[in-house]
Specification:
The chain is an all-alpha fold. Helix 2 packs across helix 10, helix 6 packs parallel to helix 9 and helix 19 runs antiparallel to helix 20. The protein is globular, with a radius of gyration of 22 Å.
């Protein structure tokens, strides 16, 4: 289901490339959409979920259904009331919000006014999608993973409809996308409510901030706001700095980030979503051995996807971007610029995915302080690298938007390394018996994939000079055969389906 939603997300971005390209209106929309989307990842998928799921799992294991229902009611009321206040303040102060997240736009009054107007339309999405995230966290805790995973499909459908159909209804067509975001928030929330009713946990909101479970969630959530979402904060800092760079920089980063996030979203987030309830129950039952095996399995599964994905994005950045986005208002220059930042993001892809599965190792144990300290170190490193790569003393070393992507990748490597070291130093994770054979299998398979890509790219056409159907055909050939080569390499090196399973 996650794969389906991410593929439809790519279709959505192809529609964006055709209808809005990388012009000023596109930059304005991407900023207006990124602000509530960033906060959604903090509240809905990030800190809130990581703090709420362990507490809910504990209530489920130790208490009655009535106690779980009371917790759900109180959390829904408190989260909803807090977000209503935040949403109202943001809508009233939209120009200040726009200046805070994209100060460089203030030099262009028309662009600044457009992003301010779209913030007023898109910001309520934060309230709606955070409540959707609450519903999804409850369903995940009860092992109903499919419904929350497929829910983002509705956002993509809404935005595709807005771009293709509704944009003709507006004097400023890009405003249709902002209203599409708002509509998607309403639809996604309503979609999940019947499934909560089926497990008899439909919330009846009650803003009871004195509830013990709410207090525990709040205590756990405050530090988790930083620890689990450092990569998102880094990406947001990229947007702030990109607003000072030439027009198109925000869009170039958006398109490249979307492709870098495809394997992350399809696989990294899916594994993290599945293991958090399991790790929480294993910690509650003091089963350290199974806890360690679950983490080791997660790391191997991430590397199984992250390593070939990194190779593919490094070597196929321009072919993939050309096939998906080179038409309509998107130019060859836009593809070249996006390709450079995609290659920079690809260097940190493995780290991005490792962070997703290492962080739950702390949150399942209700240890929020350690990831916060690590997050602070990583974010400071990212800020320093941003300035070093984007604003050097000599123009020869200026990397522009590519420097922003590279800084994010390097800081993510630091973040992932420190998270693993923190778990290992506490004897929470240690290598089990499967790593030696896995290393050999991964080395053989990735070497075979690399050889295939280097050979076939010598025969590939110039991507900008052929039709879309030719580009799509070549890319399908390269990726299809590449997948087969990689899988065959794993099999020849000894990997079997049973090695991919854990109980």
């Amino acid at each position: 289901m996650t794969f389906l939603s991410r593929i439809l997300g790519l279709v959505r971005d192809m529609v964006f490339a055709r209808f809005i390209g990388a012009e000023a209106g596109a930059d304005a929309f991407f900023v207006a959409f990124k602000i509530p989307n960033f906060l959604r990842r903090l509240f809905a998928e990030g800190a809130f979920a990581q703090a709420f799921v362990p507490v809910l799992s504990e209530y489920r294991s130790q208490g009655s259904h009535a106690a779980v229902q009371a917790l759900v009611n109180a959390v829904a009321g408190c989260l909803g009331s807090a977000l209503v206040v935040i949403t109202l303040l943001a809508c009233l102060g939209a120009p200040w919000v726009a200046w805070l997240f994209a100060p460089g736009f203030s030099a262009d009054p028309a662009k600044f006014a457009l992003v301010s107007e779209m913030i007023r339309i898109t910001f309520p999405y934060l309230l709606l999608i955070s409540l959707t995230g609450l519903a999804g966290a409850i369903l995940n805790s009860y092992d109903r993973f499919a419904v929350p995973a497929v829910t983002p499909v509705l956002l993509n459908i809404s935005l595709i409809f807005a771009a293709v159909v509704a944009s003709g209804w507006f004097e400023v067509p890009v405003l249709a996308l902002a209203w599409g975001v708002f509509a998607a928030g309403c639809i996604q929330l309503l979609f999940q409510l019947p499934f909560l009713a089926r497990i008899h946990l439909l919330p009846v909101p009650s803003a009871d901030f004195a509830h013990p479970g709410v207090k525990r969630v709040m205590v756990l959530m405050v530090p988790a706001l930083f620890g689990v979402s450092v990569s998102q904060i880094n990406l947001l800092l990229d947007t702030v700095l990109a607003s000072f760079l030439p027009t198109g920089s925000v869009s170039w980063l958006y398109y490249s980030d979307r492709l870098a996030e495809l394997p992350l979203g399809v696989f990294g987030v899916a594994i993290a979503t599945v293991i958090l309830p399991s790790l929480s129950r294993q910690h509650a039952s003091a089963d350290a051995e199974t806890f360690n095996k679950t983490l080791n399995w997660s790391l191997r599964m991430v590397l199984l996807v992250a390593l070939p994905s990194t190779l593919a994005l490094l070597l196929l950045a321009v072919p993939i971007l050309s096939t998906l986005f080179l038409y309509g208002k998107t130019s060859v220059g836009d593809i070249a610029m996006s390709g450079l930042s995609l290659q920079a993001y690809a260097l940190g892809l493995t780290a991005f995915m490792l962070i997703k599965v290492l962080a739950p190792g702390f949150y399942a144990r209700q240890d929020m302080k350690t990831p916060v300290r690590i997050g602070v170190v990583a974010m400071v490193a990212n800020m320093v690298l941003n300035l070093a790569f984007v604003l050097p003393l000599h123009s020869y070393f200026q990397l522009g938007h590519v420097g922003l992507a590279l800084a994010t990748a390097v800081s993510s490597l630091l973040n992932a390394g420190l998270l693993y070291w923190g778990l290992a130093s506490r004897k929470v994770i240690w290598p089990d018996g499967g790593w030696r054979s896995f290393a050999v299998q991964a080395l053989v398979a990735n070497a075979a994939l690399l050889a295939w890509l280097l050979v076939i790219l010598q025969w590939a056409p110039q991507w900008a000079l052929v039709s879309w159907w030719q580009r799509a055909g070549w890319l399908a050939l390269i990726c299809g055969v590449g997948f087969g080569v990689y899988a065959l390499g794993l099999v020849l090196a000894g990997m079997r389906m049973r090695h991919l399973k854990t109980r």
